[in-house]
Amino acid sequence: MSETPWLVVPAAGQGRRMGADRPKQYLPLAGAPVLARTLQRLHLAFPRARLCLCLDPEDGRFDPAWVPFADWRRVPGGAERVDSVVNALMAIAGDAADEDPVLVHDVARPCVTVDDLRRLHAAVVEDPVGALLAAPVADTMKRDDGAGRVRGTEPRAGLWHAQTPQGFPYGLLRRALAAAAEHGVAVTDEASAVEALGMAPRLIGARRDNLKITHPEDLALAELILAAQAAASSHDPKPR
Ligand SMILES: Nc1ccn([C@@H]2O[C@H](COP(=O)(O)OP(=O)(O)OP(=O)(O)O)[C@@H](O)[C@H]2O)c(=O)n1
Ligand SMILES: C[C@](O)(CO)[C@H](O)COP(=O)(O)O
Predict the structure, then answer these.
(1) What is the sign of the dihedral through the CA atoms of 3, 136, 208 and 75?
(2) What spacing in Å lies between the alpha carbon of 165 and ligand 2's midpoint?
(3) Domain interval for residue 77
(4) Which of 117, 126, 148, 230 is the most exposed, having the fewest neighbouring CB atoms within 10 Å of its CB?
(5) Where is the site labelled Transition state stabilizer (predicted)?
(6) Ligand 2: distance of its center to the CA of 162 in Å?
(7) What would the pLDDT profile of 177-228 be if each residue is shown by its tens digit?
């Protein structure tokens, strides 16, 4: 088993909810594209990792100069996030061993800290059914009635926001995603496929500022988060 993780970064989304003039991974964040910022964070935590970057085959904006890893490959993205991840796993089939840890991280989460990345990786190396970064829900949860009014208040005890990275042994993740596809299980994150096999990945309590840039206001928030992290930490240097 290689303890240095494989990194899979799905970056083939269109950023429809962002509604910008380009996919959100190419929007500038503290002076560099979101994609470059996210890869910088991953590289700080795992400088020798092998990277699979999933990109839209028709993407004309990508610049390989943004990739700080020595060992990396470009993989075609699929129709949905899960299809992009499956393509990446297939692309490394000849090189990855079943026990190798694979961390999947959204390109849209540039604020993940080195400390959380390393804690997640340590948990994945230790745990045969994998782990994910997550944060306990902090708000009161309402369910709507489908017509803009409250139907009820949901108990929030035990609810977590799933983040990325999510990490699993290579063989387990491939098996889980293949089984989910076969049985029509909806997969919005890797853990849900593993859960569908009856396994319980570990929740690793993470910082709440591991924001997924999704809506227009998130970009300014991410910029503030990076600046605050840089001021507070020696691990995460000031954005250049
Ligand atoms: N076919 C797809 C769809 C999404 N992603 C990636 O999966 C991550 C999470 O997806 P999301 O935040 O939904 O990004 P988008 O699909 O770009 O956004 P939207 O749903 O608003 O269009 C992003 O890093 C995105 O680039 C991908 O690699 N392939
Ligand atoms: C994987 C994920 O980041 C976990 O929160 C999230 O589900 C991806 O976002 P999407 O909108 O479901 O693509």
Answers:
(1) positive
(2) 11
(3) 6-232
(4) 148
(5) 17, 24
(6) 8
(7) 999 999 999 999 999 999 999 999 999 999 999 999 999 999 999 999 999 9
